[in-house]
Structure formats: structure tokens, C-alpha cells
Amino acid sequence: MKLFKIILIALWRIWFYILISVPIIIMFPFLLITTSREKYYDAFFFLARIWAKIVLFGMGFYPVLKTIEKPVKGKSYMFVANHTSMTDIMLMLYCIRNPFVFVGKRELARFPIFGFFYKRTCILVDRNNVKSRNAVFQQAQRRLSQGVSICIFPEGGVPDDENILLDNFKDGAFRLAIDHQIPIVPLVFFDNKKRFSYNFLLASPGKMRAKILRFISTENLTQHDKKGLREQVHTVLLNELKKAT
What we know:
This protein has 245 residues and is of the alpha/beta class. Helices cover 47% and strands 15% of the residues. A 7-stranded mixed sheet has the order 1-7-6-2-5-3-4, sandwiched between helices.
């Protein structure tokens, strides 16, 4: 019985990568055009949201979104969320309509097909390289100045310890938000670890709850307030996760 379960999970996980790849192949000409210039980014983002929904619903995931405060169309934000699964990317795209750019790990660019467009549209970071981190900051500054929002998973990766609800946050998201005086929009993903964990056997179709929390203003804050802001956002997300456990 256990072997049968492992085979089913393995086939289901293979199906995940098929779902990621096939829509990209079908939409390839449109994706190529919409990623050729930054001025077409809104069109690309629209296609990316369709792709995300195909992956989520095709895997048997049922997103349930609760919104405490809704992002305003045409306004820039810093979107931050807890990070537990590859499906966090898709769920973020499902939840947010405002075009945003991901700041993400360079390693994901190695994935066939998906990686091609990932590196054309996202700001890639090599966390072991100081020059890379500085370049990321400059790119993010430029995109924010163009009126596009930014999405960062401030834990900097998925916690190694499965028992950790929320790892410590890195400074980047808060530094950028203060520099541009844009609100921070905290999101909580409650079920992604149990739906599609990096732990091979921890996976199942089902409900994916997400919650957009009340925005946190950065108005009149300076870089001296960065630590307090970071801790405030961490506490808000952690309390939500604790309430759900």
C-alpha cells in the first residue's frame, strides 16, 4: 500500500511539471512577444495569471482567498509572504491582480521551459554573491520607478526545518519599500506546505487558503526604521500562522 501511494505521488508530481510546461509551450509566441520589452509587461502578467490558474486547478488545488484590504489598481506595493512551496509562485499570481515582478532565486532559471521566461521577467538573486545582491537592488529600484510592484519572499528561501512556521526575514523588501515609500502588503499562505511540500511524500490535492492582510505603511519611515518594520511584518505573519495551527 505504501509503495502504491509513493507511485501515485510520483506520478502526480510529474503531472505538476507537465502542467507548468505545456501551457508555456502553447503560449510560447505570445510570451516571447510580451517579454521582449518591459512596456509589454502588463500583457505578460495577464498571461502569467492564466498559467498560474491552470497549474493550480489542474493539480486539484482549490484556492480560497480572504482579503482584509484590497490593492488599488495602478498603485505600487511591496508584496511579501511566507515561503513553503513551489506553488507559492502560482498562488501569489492568483491572489494579486496588480502587475508585479518577482525577486527570486537564480536556481529556478535552470528549469527547462519555465526557466527561460523566469529569467526574462524576474529579478534573479544569487544570495551567496554580494555583487548579485547589489544588482538586484538596483533592478528592483528601476522597476518600482516604472510603477510596477515587487514581490519578495523575505525568508530568502524555504526553511530547512519543517517545524519552523516562519523563518527570519532578510532586509531587502523593507529597504526597498522605505526607499520608495510604498505600502507593504503581507500575505499568508496557510496550506501550501501540506499541499505540495519539498518533502516528497507531503503532498495532496485540496484547499489552498490565502489571506491578504492589512497594509503596513512606510510613509515617513527612514532606513533607521527598517529593523522595526521588518520585525512588525514578521510578527503579523507569524501570528496569523499560529492562529491557523
